[in-house]
Design brief:
10% helix; mainly beta; elongated; 799 residues; 8 helices; five-stranded mixed beta sheet
Length: 799
C-alpha cells in the first residue's frame, strides 16, 4: 500500500531514535507477507459426466491482479481426494483459462477443483481455492441429494474482542454448519441467574449472522438463547466481562471509517497506545495517542485505500506494543467501486437457433473481457459466489460463509457484512508472530513461466563442465540448435519457457577424435522446476450426500439437457468426420509431394532435386548406422569422403555439399548421431540458386512414422517437455436443420463462453452466439479490468 495515512492525536511528537518492537513488526510484515489468492469462474455450477468444464482463473495480489506468478495449477479431485485431472495454466496479467473434459463413466458425486500458484504453497493451504462441483451420472449406483440435516452451532463475538463491565458492547452471533444453515434465526440475551427475563433480543440478517448490543454489569454472567425457523434451539455462554481493558467501536461510512476507543481502569489511560490499520498485509494507517485520556476517536479517510473497497484490519497496541484489540471492517460497503459494461448495440431473437449479437463500446478503457452467456430460466436464483465476494471476502477468510455474494448485491445489507466481519479474524498473518520477528519461510520463489533442469549423460556418466548441443523443437517448428555448458553438477538449465506445444529436447555431443559419432551412448532427461504439490488438507464440507439410486429415477431437467447436448456434439463430430472422408476420397494426392510440401520451405524447393521419402516408402535403411552411410551410391553425382573423425562428408560433383537438418545448417557429426528411423525425408539439391549443392535432412514430426522395415530403436537422447495446457476452443458454430448432424433438439445451457474477448481498433468487441431451441432471455456475465486494475463486473438478464 503506497499511501500510508498517519495520525497523531496530540500535537507534540517525541523524536524516535530507534525502531520499536511494533515498528520492526510492521517492517517484517511489509517485507515478508506478500500473498496471492485465486478466483475460479466456471461456465456452470453443476455438470453431467461427459461434459466439458470451462474455467477462467483470476489471480490477485491483494485487490489487484497479481504480477508475482505466471503459472497456475488447476486440479480436479473426486471426494476421496483422488486426482482425476490437472492443468498447468499460463497467466497473463493474473488471468488464465482452461477446461476439463469429464469422462462419461465418472461416478456421480461431489468433485473438487483446487487452484493455486507455486508461490501460494509457501503459505497456509487453507487459502488455496477449493471449488465444490457436483457431477451427475444417471447410470451411477448412488445419487446426490441435498442433505436435509440442519445441525448447526453458534458463537458470540464481542466487537474488537473485548467485553468490559459497564461499557456498551456490540456482539455478532455467527452460525456454522457442515451441511446447510437454517433460513433464519432469532434469539435473546438473558442473565444466567434470571433466564426467564430477556435483556435484549435479535433477529438474523441472513443465514450467517445477527447482532445485538449489551452493557454488562459487574458480577453477572450472560447467555444467548438462539432458535432457528424450524424450532431448533441452542444456548451459548457469552464471554465473562472484564473489569479493565479497552473497548473498540467501528463504523464504516461514505466519508471513511470512524472508530472510537474507550479505556477502563488502565494505569496510564490510553497514553502511548497505537492504532494500526493494514490492508492486504500492508500498512495503510497509523495513529499514536500521546496524551493522558480515557477516550479517543478519529476518522480514517477513504484515501488509505486509494478510494477502493476492501477489508481494513484495525489493531490496537498498548504502551508495551502488546496487541489488546482488533477488528475487521469493510471500506465503503455502500459505495462499491464497480464499473458496468457499456452495451452500444444488441440483436437478440428468441426464435430457435437464431443468430444473436451484443456489441460493447470500443471507446471503453476496458479492452479485454471475460464473457459467459447462458439461457435464463427466470428462476431468480441468486449467485452463491462471484468475483466480488472472492476478491473482497472469501479469498482472505477461511471460515465457510453461506452465499457470500449476497453481501455485494444490489440489495446488500451493510449491517450484515459488518456483523460478519466482527465474527472474523484476519488469518493471513498473526500479529503476535509478527511482533516476535517470525516470518514464513519462502521455499518456492515466483519464477517467470516454466523452468527445467536438463541432465545430459554419456556412457552412463554425467557430463560436468562439458560443452553439449541441445536441439530444441517446438511442435512442428524447425529445431533451434543451442550450445550449452553443463555446470559442475552436470546440469543445464532452461529458464523462462512459455510454450503449449510439446517441446522436444535432443542431446548431441561431438565425437571423439578417431571414433564414429552416435547417440546410442547418450541419454537426456528433463526435470521441471515448477511443480504441483500434494493436497494435504481436507475438502470443505458440502450440503450434498450420496444415497442409493432409486429404481426408474429420472435425472433433473438440467442434467437431461446436458446429456442431450453431449449426444448432439457427437452427432456433429461424426458428421464432420464423414465430410472430411468424402473430401479425401475425392482428392487424388501424391504422398511424396504432399510430404515435401509439408516439410520444406520455398528456398529448399528446386527443379533439380532427388527426394527420398521415409514416411510413405520403405527405404530399407534399418541396416545402416546413419543416414549419410545409407546415401552412398543412391544419388547421381553424390559421393562421400571420410574426415579425420571417420564421418562421411557429402560431396556433389567434386565440391563439398552443405548439410541442413530441418533446414538449419549443421555438420556431419550431428547428422550421424540421428537414428535412421527418426528421418522423414532426405533431399539432394543440386545447383540451386539460393542453396547451391546441399543435402537436406528432415526429421519426423507429429504422428509421422517411418516405413523402414526392421526393429525400431528407442531414441534415448531426446526428452519431451509438456509445457502449458492449451485451452480448447469453445464451439459457437450454428446448429441448423440442414446440417448433416440433423440436431432435433438443441438444449445447450452455455450459449457463449469467451475468456478472452479483445477490443479491436476497427470492430467493437462483439459477443456473438446462436440460440438454442428454448431460450427466450439470456443471462450475460461480463468481467474485465482496465490498466489500473479497476474492476468491471456486470451481470444482466437480456431479452
Amino acid at each position: 500500500m503506497k499511501n500510508i495515512f498517519f495520525l497523531l492525536l496530540v500535537s507534540s511528537i517525541q523524536p524516535v531514535l530507534s525502531q520499536t518492537k511494533l515498528e520492526k513488526a510492521i517492517t517484517n510484515l511489509e517485507n515478508n507477507y506478500e500473498q496471492e489468492k485465486v478466483y475460479l469462474l466456471t461456465d456452470k455450477s453443476q455438470y453431467a459426466a461427459g461434459d466439458q468444464i470451462w474455467f477462467k482463473s483470476f489471480v490477485f495480489d491483494g485487490y489487484n491482479r497479481s504480477a508475482l506468478s505466471t503459472t497456475l495449477f488447476v486440479e480436479l479431485y473426486n471426494s476421496d481426494k483422488k486426482l482425476i485431472d490437472w492443468k498447468t495454466i499460463v497467466l497473463a496479467n493474473g488471468e488464465g483459462s482452461g477446461d476439463f473434459k469429464l469422462k462419461e463413466d465418472l461416478p456421480e458425486q461431489v468433485y473438487f477443483v483446487r487452484a493455486y500458484t507455486p508461490y501460494m504453497t509457501n503459505f497456509n493451504e487453507d487459502f488455496q481455492i477449493v471449488k465444490t462441483i457436483p457431477i451427475y451420472n444417471p447410470g451411477s449406483a448412488e445419487t446426490l441429494e441435498i442433505s436435509k440435516s440442519s445441525d448447526w452451532s453458534a458463537k458470540a463475538f464481542p466487537e474488537g474482542g473485548t467485553f468490559i463491565n459497564g461499557v456498551p458492547t456490540k456482539f455478532a452471533v455467527r452460525l456454522s454448519s457442515n451441511t446447510s444453515l437454517p433460513d433464519n434465526f432469532s434469539g435473546k440475551i438473558v442473565d444466567t441467574k434470571n433466564p426467564n427475563v430477556s435483556i435484549t433480543t435479535f433477529t438474523s440478517f441472513d443465514k450467517n449472522v445477527a447482532s445485538f448490543k449489551i452493557t454488562p454489569a459487574s458480577g453477572k454472567k450472560y447467555q444467548a438463547i438462539i432458535q432457528d425457523n424450524a424450532g431448533r434451539k441452542q444456548t451459548i455462554d457469552l464471554p465473562e466481562a472484564a473489569d479493565s481493558g479497552i473497548n473498540l467501536e467501528v463504523y464504516s461510512a461514505k466519508e471513511g471509517i470512524k472508530y472510537s476507543l474507550k479505556g477502563v481502569n488502565l494505569k496510564q489511560q490510553l497514553q502511548n497506545y497505537k492504532i494500526v490499520g493494514t490492508i492486504n498485509n500492508h500498512l495503510a494507517y497509523r495513529a499514536n495517542i500521546n496524551q493522558l485520556t480515557n477516550e479517543a476517536s478519529s476518522l480514517i479517510p477513504p484515501k488509505v485505500s486509494n478510494g477502493a473497497n476492501g477489508i481494513l484490519q484495525l489493531a490496537i497496541f498498548d504502551e508495551q506494543d502488546n496487541l489488546v484489540a482488533q477488528r475487521l471492517c469493510f471500506i465503503r460497503p455502500n459505495n462499491l467501486k464497480i464499473e458496468k459494461a457499456e452495451i452500444v448495440a444488441q440483436s437478440l431473437k428468441p426464435t430457435p437457433r437464431s443468430f444473436n449479437s451484443i456489441d460493447l463500446s470500443p471507446e471503453s478503457y476496458f479492452k479485454n473481457y471475460t464473457v459467459v452467456v447462458s439461457e435464463d430460466y427466470g428462476t431468480n436464483n441468486s449467485e452463491e459466489e462471484n468475483i466480488l465476494s472472492s476478491l473482497w471476502l472469501t479469498g482472505d477468510l477461511t471460515t465457510r460463509i453461506d452465499t457470500p455474494a449476497q453481501y455485494f448485491s444490489k440489495n446488500a445489507n451493510s449491517e450484515a457484512l459488518d456483523a460478519l466481519l466482527i465474527s472474523e479474524n484476519w488469518k493471513r498473518f498473526d500479529w503476535n508472530s509478527v511482533l516476535s520477528g517470525a516470518f514464513p519461510p519462502i521455499k518456492t520463489n515466483s519464477l517467470n513461466f516454466l523452468s527445467y533442469k536438463v541432465k545430459p549423460i554419456k556412457d552412463n556418466a554425467m557430463l560436468r563442465d562439458t560443452n553439449v548441443t541441445l536441439a530444441l523443437r517446438l511442435g512442428k517448428q524447425e529445431p533451434i540448435i543451442n550450445l550449452f555448458k553443463t555446470d559442475q553438477n552436470g546440469y543445464v538449465y532452461l529458464d523462462n519457457l512459455n510454450f503449449d506445444d510439446p517441446l522436444s529436447v535432443s542431446l548431441f555431443v561431438n565425437a571423439e577424435k578417431g571414433k564414429e559419432s552416435n547417440t546410442n551412448n547418450l541419454f537426456v532427461s528433463a526435470e521441471p522446476l515448477v511443480n504441483p504439490t500434494q493436497f494435504k488438507g481436507n475438502f470443505p464440507a458440502t450440503k450434498y450426500k450420496l444415497v442409493k439410486t432409486a429404481e426408474n429415477k429420472k435425472p433433473s431437467t438440467a442434467i437431461s439437457r446436458a446429456l442431450n447436448t453431449q449426444k448432439n456434439i457427437k452427432k456433429m463430430e461424426n458428421a464432420d468426420v464423414q465430410i472430411e472422408e468424402v473430401k479425401l476420397v475425392g482428392k487424388k494426392q501424391d504422398p511424396k509431394e504432399e510430404l515435401n510440401k509439408q516439410l520444406s520451405t520455398g528456398m529448399f524447393n528446386s527443379m533439380n532435386t532427388t527426394i527420398f521419402d521415409f514416411v510413405n516408402e520403405d527405404q530399407h535403411a534399418s541396416g545402416s548406422s546413419n543416414i549419410l552411410d545409407w546415401l552412398q551410391g543412391r544419388a547421381a553425382g553424390l559421393t562421400f569422403q571420410r574426415n579425420n573423425s571417420g564421418v562421411n562428408v557429402p560431396y556433389i560433383r567434386g565440391s563439398q555439399a552443405k548439410l541442413y537438418l530441418d533446414e538449419v545448417p549443421t555438420d556431419p557429426s550431428m547428422i550421424t548421431s540421428i537414428p535412421v528411423n527418426n528421418i522423414a525425408m532426405v533431399k539432394i539439391i543440386k545447383e540451386s540458386g539460393l542453396i547451391g549443392n546441399a543435402v537436406a535432412i528432415y526429421t519426423m514430426r507429429g504422428d509421422m512414422k517411418s516405413k523402414t522395415s526392421g526393429k525400431e530403436t528407442q531414441s534415448n537422447n531426446s526428452a519431451i517437455l509438456k509445457g502449458y495446457d492449451k485451452p480448447s476452443e469453445f464451439p459457437i458454430e450454428m446448429i441448423d436443420d440442414t446440417s448433416p448432424a440433423k440436431i432435433e433438439n438443441d438444449t445447450r445451457e452455455t450459449l457463449y463462453w469467451n475468456p478472452n474477448l479483445f477490443d479491436s481498433d476497427y470492430v467493437p468487441p462483439r459477443i456473438k452466439f446462436f440460440n438454442n431451441d428454448t431460450a427466450k432471455q439470456y443471462k450475460v456475465l461480463i468481467i474485465s479490468f482496465d490498466e489500473d486494475d479497476n474492476l468491471l463486473y456486470d451481470t444482466e438478464i437480456l431479452k
